[in-house]
Design brief:
alpha/beta; Purple Acid Phosphatase, chain A, domain 2; 6-stranded mixed sheet; 6 helices; 14 strands; 24% helix
Length: 271
């Protein structure tokens, strides 16, 4: 199975790039399954129902969210109606929606998509991501009832993301980090067969401060004083993520390659 995962969609620029280029990118990369993190697709904070639907209609098979999962209030009800959207497993006990879902690819093969929030440096304490993931992975071993398992670890600290990767090694097809919006250079297949990347980066304008128009973040760093609201940058977006190829029998990864399409970080597409 060829799985394309794209990092946090950032505002209007990210949505525009997804709507205009995702279908073509999917075809070019021969992706069987596309998963997109939609965490920041609506003004940089959460996703509205309409924006989530736009990303799905543009070629995504499943969306993950993050710590801003319910910043847009209509997602509270929409997520219960749309099984292709995953919020973090450990968000809150009574949160609406689901922390894991099973999606079929273009050939009918099944993949489990799940997400957890980190605890280190996050805005509020969340439940333990390791125990939350352990329960789901025990129930859905790759190569069994599902042919692949993807884990989105939405966290600040690279150390915590790496720990999750090794915790899931041999139990998931791919573990990929989101949330910090900067693509890392550590794409690898771990010793027991799990593809890993600390952060997929964002689908947004990289002439920015992690997707936000530069002026206000720079003012706050320089002066320590806020003046205006953060607003997403609206230049040409780079679609950032990874392409992972898995073995259907074992559910483990055969290879992982970074994807950077368009904008400032554009590179040659993997074969």
């Amino acid at each position: 199975m060829r799985i394309l995962f794209l990092g946090d969609v950032m505002g209007r620029a990210g949505r525009r790039a997804i709507s205009e280029r995702l279908a073509g990118l999917r075809t070019k990369l021969k992706a069987d399954l596309v998963v997109v993190n939609a965490e920041n697709s609506s003004g940089g904070r959460g996703a509205t129902a309409g924006h989530a639907q736009l990303i799905l209609e543009s070629g995504a098979d499943c969306l993950t969210l993050g710590d801003h999962a319910f910043d847009q209030k209509d997602m509270m009800s929409f997520i219960d109606k749309e099984p292709r959207i995953v919020r973090p497993l450990n968000f809150a006990r009574d949160a609406p929606g689901r922390g894991a879902t099973i999606i079929s690819d273009t050939r009918g093969r099944k993949a489990l998509i799940t997400q957890a929030l980190g605890q280190v440096f996050m805005s509020r304490p969340y439940d333990d991501p390791f125990s939350a993931l352990d329960a789901v992975l025990r129930a859905h071993p790759p190569g069994g009832m599902v042919q692949a398992v993807l884990v989105d670890i939405h966290a600040e600290a690279t150390s915590e993301k790496m720990a999750v990767g090794h915790f899931c090694d041999g139990r998931a097809s791919v573990v990929v980090g989101t949330h910090t919006h900067v693509p890392t250079a550590d794409a690898q297949v771990l010793p027991r067969g799990t593809a890993y990347l600390s952060d997929a980066g964002m689908c947004g304008d990289y002439d920015s401060v992690i997707g936000m128009e530069k002026t206000e973040p720079m003012r706050r760093f320089i002066t320590g004083m806020p003046r205006d609201r953060f607003t997403p940058a609206e230049g040409e977006a780079t679609l950032s993520g990874v392409l992972v190829e898995t073995d259907d029998k074992t559910g483990l990864a055969k290879n992982i390659q970074p994807v950077r399409d368009g904008g400032r970080l554009s590179q040659t597409h993997p074969a």
